[in-house]
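In the laboratory, one determines a bound structure by crystallizing the protein with its ligand and collecting diffraction data. In a computational setting the workflow is compressed into a single prediction: the sequence and the ligand go in, and a structural description comes out. We illustrate the idea with EPU.
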Amino acid sequence: MNRAQNAPSLPKLSPNLGLKSRNTFGFEVCAEQAYEITDAAQIPELMQAIAAQNLPWRVLGGGSNVVLPSTLPGATLLMNITAQEIVSADEKETRIAVGAGVNWHEFVIWSLQHDLPGLENLALIPGTVGAAPIQNIGAYGVEIAQYVNSIEAFDTQSQTFVTLANADCQFAYRDSYFKHHPNRFIVTKVIFSIPKAWQARTHYADLAKHFSTGPSAQAIFDAVCAIRSQKLPNPKVIGNAGSFFQNPIVPNEQYETLLSKHPGLVSYPDAPGTRKLAAGWLIDQCGFKGQRMGEVGVYENQALVLVNHGGGTAQDILGLAKCIQDKVRNDFGVSLQIEPNVY
Ligand code: EPU
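The predicted complex, in structure-token form:
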């Protein structure tokens, strides 16, 4: 085959690109070299060039789950593959292949418009489809892991495209195989499997109180949007990356001891022998909610969300995060893990 005719051109290099509008914290960030990826076929040659120069690199999706420093050295790949198609449909399920650069919320809207309910509990989660499986996004009792058939990615170790089946992804709470192999895979496409059989999931108290009888998927979508808009700051208005800490999972004995000392402790069932604690409650109890530290702070309606009031930096946010982690460890003996990826 004639390469010149069939291979897409290498992505365009943008030197010293400002990324303030491409990270939801709204930090002033400058990428030394930025490349917009619109086609997976652009990746192998680009990654070869990056490896040959020994450059550091990373992929940026929606920039909604990252803490970026003021300068991003080396190459930053801006993921913008947006192809999307239904690949198969039968009486059991519909499979949809979605480019990594598609906006997650837009995809949820699209799925409901095409009468493919299932993802409605995950409405209004910021970010891209490609980033979603990496941290296994979840909300109101649903995780994306339940709907992923497989993932296509470029493996920079073998320099080949690979397909990972759902089981290969090792999904767990806010966790996946990709998180344990940072800077190895570039997710290009997610293949979703949406079962025909649908059931409303409204067991989360926050959601349940919106309905008296069995709601439609659209009604759940609307309710989730309403709850999230009220609880979580709109990144376009106030910089943030959603939950800044994971909800910590502790052994049952530790949970029982904590509960006897703090009867108001909020927690959720987890795997046998463990309990998941509401990190927002722990942080709130420490008095951080609504507090400000220079240009950054803790959101006034949800203690789990750290915000940039404008002019804050990654250093400021990490400084505040450390204060919170120290106090929660001191008061409750619990370690909080930072949820977004820190670069
Ligand atoms: N709480 C407080 N004070 C606060 C915040 C929370 O006391 O300031 C207590 C409340 O009792 C509340 C409980 O903690 O009922 C849990 O809070 P919430 O329902 O807001 O959920 P969450 O555990 O804080 C998790 C996810 C969210 C997801 C919601 C709904 C994590 C780290 N966060 O939050 O995900 O939307 O459940 O399912 O698991 C995200 O990952 O960015 C995110 C927003």
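The two ends are 40 Å apart (CA to CA). Keep in mind that any predicted model is a hypothesis to be tested, not a measurement.
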